[in-house]
Structure formats: structure tokens, C-alpha cells
Design a protein that fits this description.
By secondary structure, this protein is α+β, with helices and mostly antiparallel strands. The chain has 7 helices and 8 strands; from the N terminus they run αααββααββββββαα. The longest helix has 49 residues, at 204-252. The radius of gyration is 21 Å and the shape is globular.
Length: 253
């Protein structure tokens, strides 16, 4: 199993490098990939974000991210939602220039009394004239299809009892066509809040400033998690080969 995963990590990505997108993806996946290609090609590691107000106290945030990484290993990491918080949280509330964000992510753990694919998000909002804590449960589903697209969907169903009235998050991960060991990610979050005061108190500039540097921190944390797993796999591979070699020498005596 370890040998198979190592082969997948280091060879399958390069083998698919250069295949036209129209031969790899279909439907919405192809449309999203073409948008990523137009935005991210030639940028190396980068992130781009846009925010739209849709009315009815609803905002949509779109992110396009390019980072060094391995698509095969990305699938292994992203299909384990209950481990997201462990590797994603270091430094997630700390601004690079010092201080902390006004929108603080406190935890993202298994939702009590829910199936294992439900996560509970706890946040704190600290604005000069508005302070509140928000707790919301999300159902998370993951899927990897034969075209090497990894899809994550997180949904907080409609609830008029919560300040976060409803949320739908879509994440798609692709192999970057311009760099064999790189990943392109597309994220779209559609969020509805209950309070008009909260909706109006979150201007586009604030949301942008609370998003970009934090995304880059999560990207760095993700890369550390990839490197950690690669080291574990390599160590396990070496240990497995040593055991086989010792067994072979004992058999030949």
C-alpha cells in the first residue's frame, strides 16, 4: 500500500501533465478549470478573491488559489474533514503584520451528536460596535472522480435561529497544468446572515483584509501537512524494505 501511494504521488501527476483540459474534465468541472487556467497560469503560488453582495443579507466569496503540492496527496488529505482543524489552525487568527483578525475562527471539530461527516464551526466576531459568537454545524461530503478532480461540499442548512442563517461552500482541487507538482483550488462560499446590522457591518474591504492573508497561512499549513505525510511515507517505505531485507537474509542462511 505504501509503495502504491508513493508511486501515485511522484509519477501519476507527471503522467497526466500536458493532457488537454477538454479530454480530462466535463461540465461544470471544465468550466471551473478554464476559469482557473485564465486566472492562475503563470502566477506560481498565488491567490485571488472576489466578493459579491447578492441581496437578502447574502454574500458570495470566490477564491482561486495556486500552490505547490501534489494532487494525489491532496486527495488523501482533503478526504479527512475531521483532521482539517489539526493542520489548518496554526496561526489562522494571527495577522502577518501583528495583531489578530476581527473575525476569529475558534474551532472546527466534529459536531456533537451528529454523524462523523458533520463539523461544528465556532467563530467570534469582534467589531468596534458589534461582538458575538457564532456556532454552526456543517455537513461535509468529499468526492474524487476518475478525472482527478477532488470535490468538497460543506452545507449549513437553513436556520432562522442562528446568526449564520445558511451557508454553502464548494471546493474543487485540480492538478495545475503548467506545473506537475502544483495544485489549483477553486472555492466558492455563499453565506446568508440573519442580522441586517451584521450584513451592513461587514464591508467588502474588511472581508477582503480578513481573507487574503489568512488563505495564504492555510496554504502554508497545508504544505507542512503534505511534507509531514511524505516524510512518514518515506520512513515507512524504508522501514518496510529493511524488514524485507532482514527476512530475506534470514531465509537464505
Amino acid at each position: 500500500m505504501i509503495r502504491v501511494l508513493l508511486i501515485a504521488i511522484f509519477f501519476i501527476g507527471p503522467l497526466t501533465f500536458g493532457i488537454p483540459a477538454s479530454e480530462q474534465y466535463q461540465g461544470d468541472d471544465l468550466k471551473i478549470f478554464e476559469r482557473l487556467q485564465k486566472t492562475l497560469t503563470g502566477h506560481g503560488e498565488a491567490s485571488f478573491s472576489t466578493l459579491s453582495r447578492l441581496g437578502d443579507k447574502t454574500v458570495a466569496i470566490e477564491l482561486m488559489v495556486s500552490l505547490d503540492g501534489n494532487a494525489q496527496l491532496s486527495a488523501e488529505i482533503l478526504q479527512r474533514p475531521n483532521e482539517y482543524w489539526r493542520w489548518a489552525q496554526p496561526g489562522i487568527n494571527d495577522k502577518p503584520q501583528g495583531g489578530s483578525y476581527r473575525l476569529k475562527i475558534l474551532s472546527l471539530n466534529h459536531a456533537p451528536s451528529k454523524p462523523e461527516n458533520w463539523l461544528q464551526l465556532q467563530m467570534a466576531i469582534h467589531l468596534p460596535f458589534l461582538k458575538m459568537n457564532v456556532e454552526r454545524d456543517f455537513e461535509v461530503t468529499t468526492r474524487k472522480d476518475s478525472s482527478q478532480v477532488h470535490t468538497i461540499k460543506a452545507t449549513a442548512p437553513l436556520s432562522n435561529d442562528s446568526q449564520l442563517r445558511q451557508a454553502d461552500i464548494l471546493i474543487k482541487s485540480f492538478s495545475a497544468p503548467d506545473r506537475p507538482q502544483a495544485i489549483w483550488m477553486y472555492v466558492k462560499a455563499t453565506i446568508s446572515v440573519r442580522s441586517r446590522v451584521l450584513y451592513e457591518a461587514l464591508p467588502e474591504r474588511l472581508i477582503a483584509s480578513e481573507t487574503k492573508d489568512r488563505i495564504e497561512q492555510v496554504m502554508r499549513n497545508y504544505q507542512k501537512e503534505e511534507n509531514r505525510i511524505k516524510t512518514l511515507l518515506a520512513d515507512s517505505f524504508i522501514l518496510e524494505n529493511r524488514k524485507k531485507s532482514q527476512k530475506s537474509r534470514q531465509t537464505n542462511r
